[in-house]
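Reopening this one. Same input as before:
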Amino acid sequence: MTNPVTIDNVNRIIQKTVTGELHTERSLRLVREASVAAGLHKDYNILMDLRETVTGPAMLDLMAIASACAKLNFDADRKIAFLIPDAEDRVRFARLFRTCMETQGLNFKQFFDFEAALRWLAG
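Same output, byte for byte:
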């Protein structure tokens, strides 16, 4: 299940909460949806809350998803934060994905804590 995009005009954050199975095709759809919102809110950062998801794209798929994110043409100041569950398998997966995102030149971090993510995005 996917909730609608929420726009936080005070902190200038585009937020999306996602639940359920997160596979490559769905991930790419989420990137496209974030792209639309980002196009309408040029100076806003992005927060994807994935804490209630189950995931498992292959490693090659991680690079495809990161490449799709890079095509959003964010300026160097725009930040992308993912909230992820604090589980060992997700943390390993997250490290690989972070490397893919950084390779694409994106200002990207992952968090377990919502408030920490907000502080980074709004700071």
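So the earlier flakiness isn't reproducible anymore. For the record, The chain has a mean pLDDT of 84.
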